[in-house]
Design a protein that fits this description.
This protein is mainly alpha-helical. It contains 10 helices and 5 strands.
């Protein structure tokens, strides 16, 4: 979702910076880079220490996401990755799922407020899996819900952890350069959904 459906990473960066200051923590570029594609419990432990009690990890992650949603609620349309809506409309009969390490409330905010809910047959969030990305569990769960073989799935990802998860799930991966210019492991890398190269690549692919 983040970096694929919405180009939200700049806003997540702002939210983490503001949230971390509540605890006197200055957010470095290295900290920002470490969060991409990760689930909040991993991010919080990385930022504040592995010894933090689980309840506090959850509380801090939830508080940061509440701050993010407040900042994002009036900006969602401008945050959509270019060409996304037209791309989704081009495949009305294709089973699609949104699988994100993000919180359920974030997913609901984006798909409902941006009018994207009808395009997805399944929404899978980070709390529904034991192992977050880069583990493949979230993508395998989405494929199971859609009743599609992993080999017949195409993942769209912007993060290194996400690409790794898709490849480990046995799926083809389309990399989107909203977060990283290079996405090793992706079958093809594009700037956004307006890419002619993407259309050509999809037309050339055949499922087993």
């Amino acid at each position: 979702m983040d970096g694929v459906i919405v180009d939200s990473n700049p806003l997540h960066r702002e939210a983490w910076e503001a949230f971390n200051l509540r605890y006197g923590v200055e957010t470095t570029e290295a900290m920002h880079e470490s969060m991409y594609g990760k689930r909040n419990d991993d991010i919080v432990r990385n930022f504040f220490g592995a010894e933090l009690p689980e309840a506090e990890v959850f509380a801090r992650g939830a508080a940061k996401e509440a701050l993010y949603r407040e900042m994002a609620k009036d900006r969602l349309q401008e945050m959509l990755v270019p060409g996304l809506r037209e791309f989704l409309q081009s495949f009305p009969d294709c089973p699609m799922a949104l699988a994100s390490n993000g919180e359920a409330a974030n997913i609901e905010l984006i798909v409902e407020k941006a009018g994207l809910r009808p395009y997805f047959r399944a929404l899978v969030n980070g709390s529904q899996v034991v192992n977050p990305k880069p583990h493949p569990e979230i993508y395998l769960r989405a494929a199971d819900i859609l009743q599609v073989k992993p080999a017949n799935c195409i993942v769209f990802e912007d993060s290194h952890a996400g690409v790794q998860a898709g490849v480990s799930a046995g799926m083809r991966v389309v990399g989107i350069r909203t977060t990283h210019d290079e996405l090793p492991g992706a079958s093809i890398t594009i700037d956004n959904f307006l890419s002619r190269e993407l259309r050509q690549w999809l037309a050339s692919e055949r499922v087993a």
